[in-house]
Design goal:
Blueprint lengths: L4 H6 L13 H33 L3 H14 L2 H4 L2 H4 L2 H105 L2 H4 L2
């Protein structure tokens, strides 16, 4: 595709839904076309400068040799008339400068947009990390306090049960010892009672 300045001026990009800007793939494809045409123009410019330098140096054999070789080696050069090629460098240079400027501007816009999005994404991610960290710390403090309360409650219950066990053992021992004393007293009184008192 032969790219002209009018193509650059009239190029329309499709808008992307749900966000501002153009379709990045379409813009990249168009920039690739611009770069290809630009490189062609630069190569042509270098060739023409070399020919002009050879011509201006007055080296007739050197200047004549490329001209003589060009038709024999590449008949394609004959299709482009020489007089028309000379004005082209200035128009081509202007078109190339316009293309370069447009490409640079589009590149800068995309880079700026990418950096802004990157900064926004980083800021959002850092905010989310801080929020999650704060929530996790609050939850950890709450859970630690709850476990501490449960531990204190269980320790108090264990102390209460130990005291109950000690009191119960003491009361049970006193009761059993009292029963044993009563049995001993009854046994002693039975042994000292005469048989006639029993009624035998």
């Amino acid at each position: 595709m032969a790219l002209t300045p009018d193509d650059v001026v009239t190029k329309q990009f499709q808008h992307v839904r749900f966000k501002d800007g153009f379709d990045p793939d379409e813009v990249d494809d168009f920039l690739d076309e611009i770069v290809i045409e630009w490189r062609k123009a630069l190569e042509e410019n270098v060739e023409l400068k070399a020919k002009l330098a050879a011509y201006e140096s007055g080296d007739a054999p050197a200047a004549a040799a490329p001209v003589a070789e060009a038709p024999a080696a590449a008949p394609v050069v004959e299709e482009a008339p020489a007089p028309a090629a000379e004005p082209a460098p200035s128009g081509s240079a202007t078109a190339t400068a316009g293309i370069i400027e447009l490409a640079q501007r589009l590149h800068d816009e995309h880079v700026a947009e990418g950096e802004a999005k990157r900064a926004q994404l980083i800021a959002d991610a850092e905010g989310e990390v801080n929020r999650i960290r704060t929530e996790a710390e609050a939850k950890q403090r709450e859970e630690s306090a709850r476990l501490e309360r449960e531990r204190n409650t269980l320790e108090a219950r264990i102390t209460e049960l130990r005291n109950f066990e000690r009191d119960y053992r003491s009361q049970l021992r006193g009761y059993i010892e009292g029963q044993l004393r009563d049995l001993d007293e009854k046994s002693a009184s039975t042994d000292s009672t005469p048989v006639s008192a029993i009624g035998l």
